[in-house]
């Protein structure tokens, strides 16, 4: 695909936010998350890394008291059509909201954006914001995704009449998955790059145990997603 000579790189979902739902929406995973959440007794929910607000909106319409959040201003702006409640800009490893919740939710592999040395802060913040008998629920990449993308995946097409290219590759040595998006707009080529860390589930369980009793659902989405549930101690 070709664009104009102009080119710039962006980050923090600055460009991808406006196309996120069309490119990355995972209906299968959404239904699985929702089914699991509805089996539990929750009322107040803090969603971390809410992105375009799809899950927050679903839960809100089902009667849950939901606060959405994300580190990206662009994602908050993109959420207006999905979620009408309070949407905070915050870092999921560093926040103090002076209130507690029945459930803290973090989906769409968002935990994989953290580095290993940030995990303790993630779990500590979550534990401090949960009510008695509260839950932390999040998903993360299955280790088999590293093999899946050992050969680069390339997708090309149009999104909202804008040509794009999306590539995914993995580095098994570093245990990372990298996604690169290129949008060929009328104002030139815009590129956005994201790298996620794929964690050993045993490491995650070890990091969680000072704060939570842990349940791991390794086949949440076979060979793709592991679901972790932390029951506040």
Which terms summarize this structure?
233 residues, alpha/beta, N-terminal domain of TfIIb, Rossmann fold, 2 domains, 7-stranded mixed beta sheet, 5-stranded mixed beta sheet, 7 helices, 12 strands
Class of the largest domain in CATH?
A: Alpha Beta
Low-confidence blocks of residues: none
The profile of the biggest β sheet is: 7 strands, mixed
How is the CATH topology of the largest domain named? Rossmann fold
Helix content class: 10-25%
The H-level CATH homologous superfamily of the largest domain, spelled out, is Vaccinia Virus protein VP39
Mean pLDDT value: 93
CATH architecture annotation name of the largest domain: 3-Layer(aba) Sandwich
Q: Gap between N and C termini, in Å? A: 53 Å
Question: What is the gyration radius calculated from CA atoms?
Answer: 18 Å
What is the overall number of helices?
7
Number of domains: 2
Look at the helices and sheets and give the structural class.
Answer: alpha/beta
**Global morphology:** globular
Secondary-structure element series: EHHEHEHEEHEHEEEEHEE
Beta fraction of the residues?
35-45%
Give the spatial strand order of the biggest sheet.
Answer: 4-3-2-5-6-12-11
